[in-house]
Design brief:
- By secondary structure, the chain is mainly β.
- The chain has one domain: Aromatic compound dioxygenase (Protocatechuate 3,4-Dioxygenase, subunit A, Sandwich), CATH 2.60.130.
- It is built from two helices and 13 strands; from the N terminus they run αββββββαβββββββ.
- Strands 1, 2, 5, 11, 12 and 13 form a six-stranded mixed β-sheet that branches. A five-stranded mixed β-sheet has the order 4-3-8-9-10, with no helix packed on it. Strands 6-7 form a two-stranded antiparallel ribbon.
- The structure holds fe (ii) ion.
- Fe (ii) ion (FE2) binds next to β8.
Length: 206
Amino acid sequence: LEHFIEDSNSRIFTGTKGSIEGPYYVPDAPNLGSKAKMPMREDEKGTALIFKGQVRDLDGNGIEGASVELWHADSDGYYSQFDDGLGIPEWNLRATFSTDADGNYEIETIQPAPYQIPHDGPTGEFISSYDGHPWRPAHLHLKVTAPGKRLITTQLYFKGGQWVDDDVAGAVKPELILHPRPNADGIDEVEYDFVLDPVSEKRYVA
Ligand SMILES: [Fe+2]
């Protein structure tokens, strides 16, 4: 249901495409400014990733002080605060960033792993009924907004990643696929810009 509402909604806006929020969002993650490293364990496993870009309005102007909230799984596919007793620290791989005067942000993190949605009970029976699988491709979750702008809730995926073409949640869109490349220091880096619609009176249309 969440998927179909989001998909219908996104057709009437022109900014960055949205996607489903999913069940692992926690509000009020710490704010780390415009350029920072995600909270992570000292021995956090996974491939390093520099994720950066700009938040703009529909006219192409960078927005200062836009809020970029990022949360994602670790390299074993687990989220902090939903870790099945694994002891992942609170707020691990969760933070909020505020864009600088030009609307830019830059985040140091690690690449998450694919994970399986819970598939015991009715969900598992449903997946089995069409011979499916419970896997989601690796993804970053984001909420991006600014004063007077529409909040975008979205997910970003990794080109060539496992399950990108066969997501159990059906939440992948071509515009939401990242293609990180090694930077001068050999660290995978990718730029992604967000474009925010103004808050408006637009409503669903049949
Ligand atoms: Fe997720």
